[in-house]
C-alpha cells in the first residue's frame, strides 16, 4: 500500500514545517500550502488522504476551505485553531471537520489523531463493504438505520453530522449503560490517547437539539452527573 498523503494548510511557517517533518518521520507523504487558495488547489491536484487545516489563513480562511472541501469530497479534515473559543465554531457550524486541535498542541498527540483518523476512514471503508445492512434501531419514536444512516424522530427525518450519527448509534446500541466522556471518545472517535472531552459535550448538545423534544430537559440522552452520558429511550 502506498504511504498515505497528508496536506498541511498552515500559514505559520515554523508550525507547517514542524508538522510536515513529523508526518514524514511517521512515513506519510506531505504537501504544504501557505494559504487557503493554495490549499484548495493542492487538494484538487494531489487528492490527499487527509487534510490538516489551520483556521486563520490568508486569502481564503480555514472555515471556507473546510466548507468547500466538504461540498466536494469526503476527505477527513483535522482543524487547527489558535483559541479554545473557536472550537464551538468548528464543531457547531456543521462544517464537517472530523477533528480539531487547539494551539499550542503536542506533536505526539497530533500524530496520534492523524493515525486514528486514517484508521477510522479505513475501517469505515471496510465496514461499508462487509456489512451494508445492520438492523435498524428503534426507541420511543426515534429510529436509526445504520445501513442508510438515516435518523427519524416521529417519522420525520433528522439531518445528523457523521459523528453525531455515530455517537447516537453507539449509545442506542448500548442503551442505559453510562459512558464517561473519555470512553465515548475512544469508542466513537477512536482516539488512542485521551482527547478533548469537550468534543463529546458539543456533539451531545447538538444531538439533543435535533432529537429531543425539549433539549434543555432531555428524555433520551441523559447526563449522569460526575460520570458521563447514557441513552435512555
Ligand atoms: Ca494561521
What report would you give on this structure?
The chain contains 8 helices and 12 strands. The protein is α/β, with parallel strands linked by helices. The strands form 3 sheets. A 5-stranded parallel beta sheet has the order 2-1-3-4-5, with helices on both faces. It has a 4-stranded antiparallel beta sheet with strand order 6-7-8-9, covered by helices on one side. A hairpin with a 2-residue loop joins strand 8 (150-153) and strand 9 (156-158). Helix 2 runs parallel beside helix 3 (62-72), helix 4 crosses helix 8 (198-211) and helix 6 packs across helix 7 (181-189). The mean pLDDT is 87. Residues 11-12, 54, 56-57 line the site of calcium ion.
Draw up the topology in text.
Layout: E1 5-9, H1 13-25, E2 29-33, H2 36-46, E3 50-54, H3 62-72, E4 77-81, H4 86-92, E5 99-102, H5 107-130, E6 137-139, E7 142-145, E8 150-153, E9 156-158, H6 162-173, E10 179-180, H7 181-189, H8 198-211, E11 221-224, E12 228-231
Parallel strand pairs: 1-2, 1-3, 3-4, 4-5
Antiparallel strand pairs: 6-7, 7-8, 8-9, 10-12, 11-12
Amino acid at each position: 500500500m502506498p504511504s498515505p498523503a497528508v496536506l498541511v494548510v498552515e500559514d505559520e511557517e515554523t508550525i507547517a514545517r514542524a508538522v510536515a517533518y513529523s508526518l514524514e518521520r511517521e512515513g506519510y507523504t506531505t504537501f504544504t500550502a501557505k494559504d487557503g487558495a493554495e490549499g484548495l488547489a493542492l487538494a484538487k491536484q494531489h487528492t490527499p488522504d487527509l487534510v490538516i487545516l489551520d483556521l486563520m489563513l490568508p486569502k481564503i480562511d480555514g472555515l471556507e476551505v473546510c466548507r468547500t472541501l466538504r461540498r466536494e469530497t469526503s476527505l477527513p479534515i483535522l482543524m487547527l485553531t489558535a483559541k479554545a473559543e473557536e472550537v464551538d465554531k468548528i464543531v457547531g457550524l456543521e462544517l464537517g471537520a472530523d477533528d480539531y486541535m487547539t494551539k499550542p498542541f503536542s506533536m505526539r498527540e497530533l500524530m496520534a489523531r492523524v493515525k486514528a483518523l486514517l484508521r477510522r476512514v479505513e475501517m469505515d471503508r471496510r465496514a461499508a463493504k462487509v456489512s451494508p445492512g445492520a438492523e435498524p434501531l428503534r426507541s420511543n419514536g426515534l429510529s436509526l438505520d445504520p445501513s442508510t444512516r438515516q435518523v427519524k424522530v416521529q417519522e420525520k427525518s433528522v439531518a445528523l453530522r457523521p459523528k453525531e450519527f455515530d455517537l447516537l448509534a453507539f449509545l442506542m446500541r448500548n442503551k442505559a449503560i453510562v459512558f464517561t466522556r473519555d470512553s465515548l471518545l475512544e469508542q466513537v472517535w477512536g482516539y488512542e490517547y485521551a482527547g478533548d472531552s469537550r468534543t463529546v459535550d458539543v456533539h451531545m448538545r447538538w444531538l439533543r437539539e435535533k432529537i429531543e423534544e425539549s433539549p434543555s430537559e432531555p428524555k433520551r440522552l441523559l447526563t449522569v452527573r460526575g460520570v458521563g452520558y447514557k441513552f435512555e429511550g
